[in-house]
Design brief:
single chain; 238 residues; alpha/beta; Rossmann fold; 6-stranded parallel sheet; 10 helices; globular; AB_hydrolase_fold; Pimeloyl-ACP methyl ester carboxylesterase; catalytic activity; Sec-Metab_Biosynth_Hydrolase
């Protein structure tokens, strides 16, 4: 594949790789190499191990971009040797030994907390797990605010749940300690308290942080601005 930097777009919980669609279109149109793999949302360790393996099979440097829970995933997976930078989009930036629940617990709850639904799912040879999803009726306003109502309803019924264990699992690595990073805060976010994003970015000492007056799915509502941050990071990396 050569030495050109590949942009790997990592989606978050309650969404899939299509959530990056408008940004993917813009990056491809600009001539960048882009891939948007699935995240299975089973546990932080499993998801990070999968993304790391995916990245390590790419020849040449990789810029990882993670949205929401995907930020936690790239925090761990980003220690792969060929990862040269990290872009956090409305994302969680964890410290080693810290979980999503611990990071969120230091700030007032967002609107998401009161609109979660819990359901069992089978695990071969073990006790059932618990899937967490967003209430379908609340999804358009809490998770997909700012989107066309019809599209938001479609996303609501096709969301990818997150296993409950992911909330309590501690990060085993923090790639931002050794890799340069960039961040986007969605200041109108109702899914993650924007203060969680700001705190994580500041603690990580990211090279730059952009505040966008946008909801959680900023890649859908403001794709030009998100793509600009990613292309700016590529330019800085050379």
């Amino acid at each position: 594949m050569g030495s050109e930097t590949t942009v790997v777009l990592v989606h978050g919980a309650f969404a899939d790789a299509a959530s990056w669609g408008p940004v993917t279109e813009r990056l491809l149109a600009a001539g960048h190499r882009v891939v948007a793999p699935p995240v299975f949302n089973r546990s932080l360790s499993e998801d990070a191990a999968y993304i790391r393996s995916f990245v390590e099979q790419i020849e040449g440097p990789v810029l990882l971009a993670g949205h929401s829970y995907g930020g936690a995933v790239i925090t761990v997976a980003g220690v792969a040797d060929n990862v040269v930078g990290l872009v956090f989009v409305s994302g969680y930036v964890l410290e080693v030994g810290e979980s999503l629940g611990q990071l969120q617990g230091g700030f007032p709850d967002s609107d998401l907390a009161a609109n979660l639904v819990y359901a069992p799912y089978p695990i071969a040879g073990g006790e059932p797990g618990t899937d967490v999803s967003v209430d379908i009726d609340a999804f358009p306003e809490v998770f997909a605010a700012g989107l066309d109502k019809t599209k938001a309803r479609v996303l609501a019924v096709s969301q990818r749940p997150l296993s409950a264990v992911a909330f309590g699992e501690a990060a085993t690595a923090a790639a931002w300690k050794t890799k340069p990073g960039w961040g986007i805060v969605s200041s109108a976010d109702r899914t993650i308290n924007p203060e969680v994003e700001r705190f994580g970015y500041q603690r990580a000492g990211l090279r730059s942080v952009v505040e966008i007056d946008a909801p959680h799915l900023v890649m859908q509502t403001n794709p030009d601005e998100v793509a600009a941050v990613i292309t700016g990071a590529l330019a800085e990396l050379g």
